[in-house]
């Protein structure tokens, strides 16, 4: 082995997968649970009961053995029909994913495009719904991780609620960092996934479905089998899944939910808000900009000037300091970096990420006052403790 190889701990500040607590790792390393054993029905029903507290929601909720994209697809195939007109609110790569999924199933998609980095304007959605009064569903993203933007789902939900359209929301990266009260905000379908705020490996997703969405499911003619939520409803009434569930991930979810609920949702939402604000403040102190006009508390997208190569900066942070952050997607490649504080990230972790950002910037020759970013971040976190 070459002497230039240096072992370095990798610290994840990506918006998924996120760091996994030791307690969760230990739970997943325990002996595997039999999914048809006598104890499983209580385990499953209590797991879903507590998961519903995290959003929060009172709607039917199911665990799916798939990525978050699979849960998005489940929402479409259970509630829509071929040729249905839908409006997709899109302002980033994950808004575009709704578009791709809807088109794959033959719906009539009207895309309400917004510039990447900008939040959706509710008044434009209102005009679109007046223009297309036969719209069957509106689909939106809560936290757009490709840009760091937070869309105002509550405001969009009020507008959709004036119509007969369903409201489907991708909460994959927002759940845990932000509240997503489905009933209060008029959300008929909400989805999330394990590798984000729930602090698990990828492979487990969750979906909620309202009474209005169940009614639409009875009229839907889109093909579905594995993702047929009615099968999940019938199976859950018997304390099981319609197919073999990922019991190892579910054991981890049990530990993760225990951690989350012990801390309390209000405290966790506040923690994400303070940490995200600390990263944004640090970026400004380093003469950089926050790319998102309405930033999410799950991550911070930092806009970079032309003279900074975002790919080189990310590589320096990773190889020199073991700090792994997200890069720009699509046309934003090399133009932004994305630092996540989602999930199992504490205040000292945030300061580590900011410190690595400073040192990476110094290495590539960016001029700023050394320690400025860390100082601002420390101040914001300290104020939040008072």
CATH class of the largest domain reads Alpha Beta
Low-confidence stretches: 1-5
CATH-defined architecture of the largest domain: 3-Layer(aba) Sandwich
CATH level-4 homologous superfamily of the largest domain:
Type I PLP-dependent aspartate aminotransferase-like (Major domain)
Can you list the strand order of the major beta sheet? 2-10-9-8-5-3-4
Major β-sheet, in short? Answer: 7 strands, mixed
Task: Describe the overall structure.
- The structure is a single chain.
- The chain is of the alpha/beta class.
- It folds into 2 domains: 22-262, Type I PLP-dependent aspartate aminotransferase-like (Major domain) (Aspartate Aminotransferase, domain 2); 264-385, Alpha-Beta Complex (Aspartate Aminotransferase, domain 1).
- 42% of the residues lie in helices and 16% in strands.
- The strands form 3 sheets. Strands 2-10-9-8-5-3-4 form a 7-stranded mixed beta sheet, sandwiched between helices. A 5-stranded mixed beta sheet has the order 1-13-14-12-11. A two-stranded antiparallel ribbon has the order 6-7.
- Strand 11 and strand 12 (299-303) form a beta hairpin.
- Mean pLDDT is 96; it is low at 1-5.
């Amino acid at each position: 082995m070459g002497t230039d190889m240096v072992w370095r701990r990798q610290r994840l500040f990506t918006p998924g997968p996120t760091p996994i607590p030791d307690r969760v790792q230990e739970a997943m390393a325990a002996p595997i649970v039999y999914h048809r054993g006598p104890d499983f029905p209580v385990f499953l029903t209590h797991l879903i009961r507590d998961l519903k507290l995290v959003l929060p929601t009172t709607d039917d909720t199911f665990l799916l053995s798939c990525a978050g994209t699979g849960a998005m697809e489940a929402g479409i195939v259970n509630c829509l029909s071929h040729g249905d007109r839908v409006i997709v609110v899109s302002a980033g790569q994950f808004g575009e994913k709704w578009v791709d999924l809807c088109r794959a199933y033959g719906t009539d998609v009207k895309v309400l495009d917004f510039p990447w980095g900008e939040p959706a304007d509710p008044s434009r959605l209102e005009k679109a719904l007046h223009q297309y009064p036969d719209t069957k569903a509106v689909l939106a993203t809560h936290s757009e991780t490709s840009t760091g933007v937070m869309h105002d789902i509550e405001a969009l939900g009020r507008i959709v609620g004036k119509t007969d359209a369903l409201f489907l929301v991708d909460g994959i990266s927002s759940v845990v960092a932000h509240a997503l009260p489905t009933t209060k905000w008029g959300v008929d379908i909400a989805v999330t996934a394990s590798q984000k705020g729930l602090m698990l490996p990828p492979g487990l997703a969750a979906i909620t479905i309202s009474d209005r969405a169940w009614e639409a499911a009875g009229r839907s003619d889109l093909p579905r089998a594995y993702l047929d939520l009615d099968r999940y409803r019938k199976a859950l009434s018997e304390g099981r899944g319609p197919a073999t569930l990922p019991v190892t991930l579910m054991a981890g979810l049990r530990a993760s939910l225990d951690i989350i609920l012990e801390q309390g949702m209000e405290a966790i939402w506040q923690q994400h808000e303070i940490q995200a604000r600390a990263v944004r403040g640090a970026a400004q102190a380093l003469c950089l900009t926050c790319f998102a006009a309405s930033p999410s508390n799950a991550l911070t997208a930092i806009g970079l000037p032309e003279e900074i190569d975002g790919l080189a900066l990310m590589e320096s942070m990773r190889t020199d300091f073991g700090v792994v952050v997200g890069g720009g997607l699509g046309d934003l490649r090399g133009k932004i970096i994305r630092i996540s504080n989602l999930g199992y990230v504490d205040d000292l972790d945030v300061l580590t990420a900011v410190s690595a950002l400073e040192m990476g910037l110094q290495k590539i020759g960016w001029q700023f006052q050394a320690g400025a970013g860390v100082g601002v971040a420390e101040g914001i976190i300290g104020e939040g403790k008072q």
